[in-house]
Design a protein that fits this description.
112 residues; rod-shaped; mainly alpha
């Protein structure tokens, strides 16, 4: 995970962090118009905390997106292997080993 250094007393307040998160989501959306960019620019320039808050929120979004892509690839690979793994678990002739459990139990009960 990327390391972010925060200078003592420079962490944006909660309102700036919340607004920054909303801006990251909005600006990464499909329908962003000129009015959105103008409003974002006005918000960004309204306070020094806004730029730091936006940078932190954007970095988090990017990090989570990379992790989500990696997780998606791993799950797809696991799903692709699942049918082969299930076939490998089956005994010879394609019969599940669980079919033999009741037979083994019955044979043990008769022998006891």
């Amino acid at each position: 995970m990327s390391e972010m250094r925060v200078i003592e007393g420079s962490e944006p307040d909660r309102a700036a962090q919340d607004a920054a998160a909303e801006w990251v989501i909005k600006l990464r959306g499909e329908e962003v118009g000129e009015a959105d960019w103008l409003a974002f620019d006005a918000w960004l320039n309204a306070a020094p905390d806004h730029g730091r808050a936006y940078d932190a929120a954007d970095a988090l979004w990017t990090e989570l997106s990379h992790r989500a892509d990696d997780l998606r690839q791993r799950l797809e690979a696991r799903e692709a292997l699942a049918p082969r793994a299930r076939r490998a678990e089956r005994g010879r002739r394609g019969v599940s080993p669980w079919v033999y459990a009741p037979l083994a139990a019955a044979a043990a009960a008769r022998g006891a």
